[in-house]
């Protein structure tokens, strides 16, 4: 069979035979168009953007430190400096196009890896929802528009999660080291393998991160703590919010201590009540990242990009995202909608300033509540106790199969269900 008939057969319009299949047929075109619109929007922006010029200057300073004019107070992390180093051999305009292409590829690869972590097939209705939702959310849109390193941070984080779930200890440790090198503010992620009694992984990851950081520090004399935007005045940590609201220092310290206590309690409850490996790793990763976003003084709204794997875990049974307060929190930190108003200027300004922080706090509180009140999640598939009477059923992976009651006139024997 030639290639052309096979291609035409693949895209031939079909009539859906079930509601999930109809949802899949409807969601795929929408998801693809959302991705194309975001790419068109990003490539239509004037180039190169200010954030990209910061990345380009860091790459130039790494390659030719003797020609660097001054030290940037908001220096990029060691991993970011090494990752962006090849840009220095190009002109800013050429480097911008290459960088945008690599960023889009990194985002799509991160999406594919997330599907592997979640065991989602391409025919599942959740697959186009994850693709469209990822490109529709504010942090990803901001990454594409500003051409920063958020796409590569998400790719490294998702790759580590996949390797950790599959127990590839050495490769997972190297990937985790790359994550810490890109985002030293997320060094608390080393706790996740420790909680699983994987002692080698955090030690090797710390060694990899150090090995990547030392050459950059020796060559440039700079050591940044983030690969994402850390512009002064854009922080959304609890310390920045306390300063914005003119709260006493004691109140800020009390809030920070409460967040630490809540994160620790959530992690303890997680490993006491959860046994399903992908869900445990995803939830622990999300809790640590939520606490890091709230407690890191330079954390901005762009840090919400790293919470995409946690949000995607809603497809797994027992996920802390399966409640409405969790999605109220996701809306707060995951959208780029503007609530400013000329008629309610003060309220709108306060809401825009506090929205990401309140979203992080609400999701952390929701996770703690769900873990404290939930039941222990057993290992293995959830047994199906319902009688299947439809001639065509839809399994959990999105595929169609015949009902066990069809094609047979005899009643099922004991233990058939």
UniProtKB/TrEMBL annotation:
GO terms for molecular function: hexosyltransferase activity. The chain crosses the membrane at residues 22-43, 96-118, 130-163, 169-192, 199-218, 250-272, 279-304, 354-373. It is a multi-pass membrane protein. InterPro entries: GT87 (IPR018584). Residues 379-417 are annotated as: Disordered. The keyword 4Fe-4S does not apply. It is found in: Cell membrane. One of its GO terms (cellular component) is plasma membrane. Residues 404-417 have a biased composition (Low complexity). Its EC number is 2.4.-.-. It holds the Pfam family GT87. It comes from the Bacteria. Keywords: Cell membrane, Glycosyltransferase, Membrane, Transferase, Transmembrane, Transmembrane helix. Belongs to the glycosyltransferase 87 family. This is Glycosyltransferase family 87 protein.
């Amino acid at each position: 069979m030639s290639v052309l008939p096979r291609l035409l057969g693949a895209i031939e319009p079909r009539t859906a035979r079930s509601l999930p299949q109809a949802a899949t047929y409807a969601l795929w075109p929408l998801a693809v168009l959302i991705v194309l619109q975001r790419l068109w929007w990003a490539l239509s922006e004037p180039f190169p953007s200010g954030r990209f010029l910061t990345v380009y200057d860091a790459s130039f300073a790494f390659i030719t430190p003797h020609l660097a004019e001054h030290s940037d107070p908001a220096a990029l992390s060691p991993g970011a400096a090494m990752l962006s180093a090849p840009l220095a051999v190009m002109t800013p305009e050429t480097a911008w196009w290459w960088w945008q292409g690599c960023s889009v590829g990194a985002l799509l690869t991160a999406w594919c890896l997330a599907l592997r972590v979640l065991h989602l097939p391409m025919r599942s209705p959740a697959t186009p929802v994850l693709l469209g939702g990822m490109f529709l959310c504010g942090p990803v849109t901001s990454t594409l528009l500003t051409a920063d390193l958020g796409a590569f941070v998400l790719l490294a984080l998702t790759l580590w999660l996949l390797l950790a779930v599959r127990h590839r200890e050495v490769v997972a440790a190297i990937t985790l080291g790359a994550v810490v090198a890109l985002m030293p503010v997320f060094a608390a992620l080393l706790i996740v393998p420790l909680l699983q009694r994987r002692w080698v992984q955090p030690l090797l990851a710390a060694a990899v991160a150090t090995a990547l950081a030392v050459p950059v520090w020796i060559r440039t004399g700079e050591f940044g703590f983030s690969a994402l935007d850390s512009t002064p005045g854009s922080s959304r940590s609890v310390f920045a919010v306390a300063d914005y609201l003119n709260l006493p220092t004691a109140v800020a310290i009390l809030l920070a201590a409460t967040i630490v206590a809540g994160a620790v309690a959530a992690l303890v409850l997680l490993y006491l009540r959860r046994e399903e490996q992908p869900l445990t790793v995803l939830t622990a990763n999300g809790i640590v990242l939520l606490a890091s976003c709230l407690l890191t003084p330079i954390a901005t709204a762009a840090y919400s990009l790293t919470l995409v794997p946690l949000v995607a875990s809603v497809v797994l049974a027992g996920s802390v995202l399966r409640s409405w307060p969790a999605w109220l929190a996701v809306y707060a930190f995951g959208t780029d909608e503007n609530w400013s108003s000329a008629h309610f200027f003060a309220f709108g300004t306060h809401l825009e300033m506090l929205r990401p922080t309140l979203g992080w706090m609400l999701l952390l509180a929701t996770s703690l509540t769900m873990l404290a009140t939930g039941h222990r999640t057993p290992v293995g598939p959830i047994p199906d106790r319902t009688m299947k009477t439809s001639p065509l059923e839809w399994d959990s992976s999105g595929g169609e199969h015949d009902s066990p009651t069809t094609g047979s006139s005899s009643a099922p024997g004991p233990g058939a269900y």
